[in-house]
Amino acid sequence: MNLKNFRFDLDDEGVATLTWDMQDRSMNVITEEVMNELELVIRHVVSDQAVKGCVVISAKPDFSGGADLGMLEASSHRFAETAAVKGEEIARQEFFDGTRRLSLIYRELETSGKPWVAAIDGICLGGAFELALACHHRLVTDNPKTRVGLPEVKVGLFPGAGGTQRVIRLMPTGDALQMLFKGEQLKANAAKAMGLVHEVVPKAELHEKARAWIIAGNKGVAPWDDPKFKPPSGRVYSPTGMMIWPAANAIYRRETQDNYPAAKAILHAAFEGLQLPMDLALRVESRWFAHILGTKEARAMIRSLFVSMGELNKGARRPKAEPRVEIKKVGIIGAGFMGASIAYVSALNGLDVVLLDRTLEAADKGKMHSHKLMSEQIAKGRAKTADRDALLAHITPGDDYAVLSDCDLVIEAVFEDRAVKADTIRKAEAAMKPGTIFASNTSTLPITSLAENFSRPADFVGIHFFSPVERMMLVEVIKGAKTGDRALATALDFIRILRKTPIVVNDSRGFYANRCVLNYVREGHLMFMEGVPAAMVENVARMAGMPVGPLSLNDEVALALAWKILQATKADLGAGAVDPAQEQLLDALVNKHGRLGRKNGKGFYDYPEKGAKRLWDGLADLQTVTLDPDTLDVDEMKQRFLVTQALEAARTVEEGVVVDPREADVGSILGFGFAPFTGGTLSYIDGMGVREFVLLCDHLAKRHGPRFKPCDLLLDMAAKKETFYGRLLAAKAAA
Questions:
Q1: pLDDT value at position 735?
Q2: Domain shared by 180 and 283, yes or no
Q3: Of 283, 426, 647, 727, whose CA is between 20 and 30 Å from 124?
Q4: Residue 693 — left, alpha, or beta (φ > 0 → left; ψ -120 to 50 → alpha)?
Q5: What pLDDT digit, counting tens, does each position of 720-729 carry?
């Protein structure tokens, strides 16, 4: 066999080992070529009488990340091309056949008559885990990094190579649906407890244990191919089934608000497939998979959350001429919540950190934040005491700026006040070694003005982390007017060490993410002041696809901070720059009632020490008008929440703050949770059509005020029938 991506070896006992090792990739992925070779190997195993069975293993640190989603994205483009040439009916058949091919290959393996064993170490996700599920025996190592799972729903898809049908036959129905809906990565022991793998073994014994299972004479027959097989939860139409499926449908609607076609397809495929023999069930799954792959939601999510995010993570915006920057030691000024959190993620990724504050006591307190976070991981079984000790050894607290003298990068995370930051910047520069890059973790203050306090503005850059730093994957890098390529490259190399996703934006008040999310919060405030019940404001926002309501979000970031931002904006730009209704609301909450947000237990919500948060009983007294919820247009309210953010994103493009739609989309989803099913703020506009979006803006502007007026860029794009991504492709082609 002529194999490029695999090695095939047969030992003296008749056990074949298929080693997956793609030479041109750091991780194995499923491509057209891989499918061709896998099909060739399966047929060779079947036809060669000397082969008793086959072990599938990887030569790389991870088994496989799954299918190359770029291949799936390309299949959608081929459909359009084929439809134009051969007609839509032929195109649909070819599209279905193409998207079903992997499922058929796995079924051929499963019914080959010979035993197959998946020997998994490291990551095994998506289509790769579907390969494992098609094997007759599955072993995983006790390596802490070993994970298995089917995360396709997170990029708008669902497991389409047999995953839904095999999982629903291996696990109780409710557990299987929950796993498929969440798309989580499972540790080895959890996967075994759920019945998805058979054994957890030491890494050194993986291959031998897999061989032994075949040598022992175990048969190559899947449980569902036994005529006596019964699903764990019994038949769909049974008393047990009728307790499961109505509840599953209700949970699906509660969790997705019917915004995610892939999640609905999982329900369909599982419900319909359980009533059919395996081959027909797989065909049903394939029909749903082809349908979902053709939806605008899947196309948008694949583009933003896989293709674009992958490109940004690999340095799409990094200055190509700048050599890789070696960062070993980071100085962080300000040991408050944000600074301490940056110290934690830096140390977690192997960097030495000096954590500086006005007093050693404050700096020590900042270090204890890392102790607390690691202790929580230990309590959950995700880390060991030795891991905590090793991380804490990377963090050195201090109260003297002299500790910054040997740092490769210095970041200030002090109080959001111009005077405080200016003083910090000047003191830091005096202690830093020549040429060291300085970064500000400001969330709103323009980088250009802050850089005026630094004698080398070319070496000054903004690095805006989102809270909580340890969980938020986005980092916003801000270029000031004089920020140089070396500073930008250093910031991006630092973020890559932290394994977070960067977006690069040009300087402006609020940069990109905060401008959009503040519009979202403002819209919630204004709806409330119009007389919409607070609970409805929150619920409709979630129905629109936002992860949390605007009032709850405002509590999290602090109402006191929102008030300060409003007053700073008013001072800098004039009274016309703020909405009087919003100012009235925040003034009442913060200044009259002392409700500062979650941190003092009082905001839009009350936060009792025990029990869940609940909306404050006094909110209704702040409304001068009360509207009847039954008379409100819920669809228009949902549009207001999404349009206000997307429109602000378009304005940032018009102003040159954002220059790449990939960053606007990825940043909006990772940074503030903009409805992921849309693909992000600019994909939301492109998906609707710019002309249609402009018409919607005009409608909302007439109903709710000039804040919805479309910007000149959108009007120009609508007239020219352009899209944001079309402009990006045109710019790339011109370059």
A1: 63
A2: yes
A3: 283
A4: alpha
A5: 999 999 987 7
